[in-house]
């Protein structure tokens, strides 16, 4: 039996996130669904992801997470890991993942490829090329080679199909898009990947994707720049009045 669809569109989902690649996967999905949600900023620059209040939601101390007050059994459910969240929302909505068993499993191959290969590998290239405090030629060469190989796998697929898996836009497309937004930090020349570039431009034109990219976007401008990176063990205690700063100027999606 499949997951019961979520019919109670009056109850907003709580989103705990920050405008990063993995966060944006979920921001885009929520905007695609058009369900009401409330976005709570977990300020990664201040180490809020390591606060006890947040690790009670996500024991892995990373964004994104959601709390759906109206879970499949009617009780609230907490879901963390961007892949698990996309799958949860797709199943609750009956959208962006076909119910046809053959198509569903073909789509899950491309979805899992995004979650387990593309995201982590592009993240590593991004790190060594952009954030590493020292230049490590071997790490840069190896991670860039793998990033280019993965772009090639996606480009070959998109020469055959309009979307990441077949004729429909699915969670495999949503999982991929935000990571490819950082191509310049991954050593990628889009000229080598024409079919993927066309797909990228098509996804980027979707109104829900554009709205998703704006979710919590003001955080990056409003946030105070800390003088030094937060120490791993000294996360700030959550404020007693509200555990997460909810941006007053963030407008939740329309139901
Ligand atoms: N596998 C996790 C990865 C999540 C992740 O790495 N999130 C990053 C932001 S994109 C994060 O929270 N970083 C903060 C930290 O590592 O302390 C997912 O897909 O949700």
Report the β-strand fraction as a percent range: 5-15%
Low-confidence stretches: 223-255
Instruction: Return Rg in Å.
Output: 19 Å
> What's the architecture of the largest domain, going by CATH?
3-Layer(aba) Sandwich
Shape: globular
Number of helices: 9
Q: How is the biggest beta sheet arranged?
A: 5 strands, mixed
- Could you report the average pLDDT, rounded to the nearest whole number? 87
Helix % is: 40-55%
Level-1 CATH class name of the largest domain: Alpha Beta
What would you call the quaternary organization?
Answer: single chain
Can you put this structure into words, describing what you see?
- The chain has 255 residues and is an alpha+beta fold.
- The protein folds into two domains: 114 residues, Glutaredoxin, CATH 3.40.30; 106 residues, Glutathione S-transferase Yfyf (Class Pi), Chain A, domain 2 (Up-down Bundle).
- It is built from nine helices and five strands, in the order βαβαββαααααααβ.
- The protein has a five-stranded mixed sheet, covered by helices on one side.
- Strand 1, helix 1 and strand 2 form a beta-alpha-beta unit.
- The C terminus is likely disordered.
- It binds glutathione (GSH).
- Glutathione binds next to helix 1 and helix 3.
């Amino acid at each position: 039996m499949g997951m019961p669809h979520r019919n109670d569109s009056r109850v907003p989902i709580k989103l705990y996130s920050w405008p990063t690649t993995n966060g944006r996967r979920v921001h885009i999905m929520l905007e695609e669904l058009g369900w009401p949600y409330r976005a709570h900023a977990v300020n990664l620059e201040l180490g809020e992801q390591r606060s006890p209040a947040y690790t009670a939601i996500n024991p892995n101390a990373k964004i994104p997470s959601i709390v759906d007050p109206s879970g499949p059994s009617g009780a609230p459910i907490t879901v963390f890991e961007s892949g698990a969240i996309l799958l949860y929302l797709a199943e609750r909505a009956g959208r962006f993942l076909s119910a046809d068993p053959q198509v569903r499993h073909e789509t899950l191959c491309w979805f899992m490829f995004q979650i387990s290969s593309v995201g982590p590998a592009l993240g590593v290239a991004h790190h060594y090329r952009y954030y590493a405090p020292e230049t490590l030629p071997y790490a840069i060469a190896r991670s860039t080679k793998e990033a280019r190989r993965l772009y090639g796998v996606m480009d070959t697929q998109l020469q055959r199909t309009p979307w990441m898996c077949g004729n429909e836009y699915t969670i495999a497309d949503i999982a991929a898009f935000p990571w490819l937004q950082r191509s310049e930090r991954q050593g990628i020349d889009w000229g080598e990947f024409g079919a993927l570039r066309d797909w990228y431009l098509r996804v980027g034109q979707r109104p829900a994707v554009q709205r998703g990219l704006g979710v919590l976007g003001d955080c990056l401008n409003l946030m105070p720049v800390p003088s030094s990176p937060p120490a791993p063990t000294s996360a700030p205690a959550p404020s007693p009045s509200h555990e997460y700063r909810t941006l007053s100027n963030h407008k939740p999606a329309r139901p």
